[in-house]
Fold this protein.
Amino acid sequence: MDAHLQTFLVIMLAAGFMVLLILSIVVIFILIIILRRVMRITQRAEEASESLSSALRELAKKAAPIALPTLVGAVIRKLSKRRNRKVAEED
């Protein structure tokens, strides 16, 4: 009877190890799939940020000649308004 019990325990132990092995393989495959998806998402995010930055660079190149005179004009207008206020206050 003792030999039968030992055989049964060895079989149960082997079955338990087999289940753990199968579960670990499944978990490893799931982790690999998740990591691949994360890599794809990060690649797409990098591509989107690169395209956005290149679009902003192009916009800055085209808008710079227009923006500089506009900014200078706004500063001159503001300064002239201040000067007009000071002159009005002195009178």
About this structure: The helical segments are 2-90.
